């Protein structure tokens, strides 16, 4: 490898690791539609090993106070990326009826749910079976 190529690759890897450098995922502050109430969170059914390809595919927008112990059938265990709005918190469960493991996501961008552990062998990618979203 060329001597200048190695530092450039290292810099690129560091920039990818910084929060907020994901191109496809919206910034939490932008979760405000032009008309209607603000969004508490938004789920996406696609993610990728490359952060710029995350937060893609179908979207499920959640208003503040939404409580879904049973997700719609097309969203049961399908979420791969999510964004939580400012001053909001999303609580998720691994099973329908608010059963199984639970996790809270505070305001921020989560482009790859595969990076968040669910027990010893699993992760939160395609694992959300119920949710509750609230804003303060």
From TrEMBL:
This is Syncollin. InterPro entries: Syncollin. It comes from Sarcophilus harrisii (Tasmanian devil). Residues 1-23 form the signal peptide. The keyword Translocase does not apply. It is a peripheral membrane protein. GO terms for biological process: exocytosis. Functions in exocytosis in pancreatic acinar cells regulating the fusion of zymogen granules with each other. May have a pore-forming activity on membranes and regulate exocytosis in other exocrine tissues. One of its GO terms (cellular component) is zymogen granule membrane. It is found in: Zymogen granule lumen; Zymogen granule membrane.
